[in-house]
Design a protein that fits this description.
mainly alpha; single chain; 8 helices; two-stranded antiparallel sheet
């Protein structure tokens, strides 16, 4: 009886520590990120199978949007430079999805219980949005630069090319492209190792 209680206690601590885990210690090596977060690899694969977006592109979006912080929000504006004011948007979670866009995703996919601070839901959202970008804006799923511009500006904004004079956004999109290419190259070298010990998904 005592042994059973100890086992239950240890399992509870493991589960709690998994839920409370913070962002990766480093964000530049996909293999190290995924070795420390093995369930993430299966989530990335599932999104790639469903939506056709590479794991590296998914990770690059999350790195740019939240640095893999599940509870990330935009910083509050400061009134008179001191008093905390309203946040500039409703963006939240790994993918920094807005309330309205997240509601559209849940309605469109039927995934009404999806949460923005759940990694699997966040990468599925990125894959879904990229699929919309392909359909509504004619962007290739292998073009993380343009996918990110549409992600930031919305499909209407992207189609009107509202990003043209936003140098900071163009730089951000170039960073996403560079990160996506690097992550995919890294994953290609450690993919077999990442798959060891994981229960196959269906």
């Amino acid at each position: 009886m005592v042994f059973r209680s100890v086992i239950i206690g240890v399992l509870s601590l493991v589960l709690l520590s998994g839920c409370a885990s913070g962002p990766p210690d480093q964000v530049h090596d996909a293999c190290l990120i995924l070795q420390d977060n093995r369930s993430w690899w299966r989530d990335l694969q599932r999104t790639e199978r469903r939506w056709g977006v590479s794991p590296g592109t998914q990770l690059a979006f999350l790195k740019k949007e939240s640095s893999f912080n599940r509870n990330a929000r935009p910083a509050r504006r400061r009134l008179l430079g001191v008093i905390p004011g309203a946040r500039p948007s409703s963006a939240f979670g790994y993918a920094q999805a807005l309330d309205g866009t997240w509601d559209w995703y849940r309605e469109d996919t039927g995934r009404r219980g999806a949460d923005r601070n759940d990694f699997g839901d966040a990468v599925d959202f990125i894959g879904w949005y990229a699929n919309k970008s392909q359909r509504l804006s004619g962007i290739s799923l292998n073009d993380p630069y343009s996918l990110y511009l549409a992600y930031h500006e919305g499909h209407g904004g992207y189609n009107r090319r509202t990003y043209r004079n936003k140098d900071w956004l163009l730089r951000a999109a170039r960073t996403v492209r560079t990160d996506a290419e690097r992550y995919d190259a890294q994953i290609s070298r450690c993919e077999r190792r990442l798959g060891r010990g994981l229960i196959p998904f269906f």
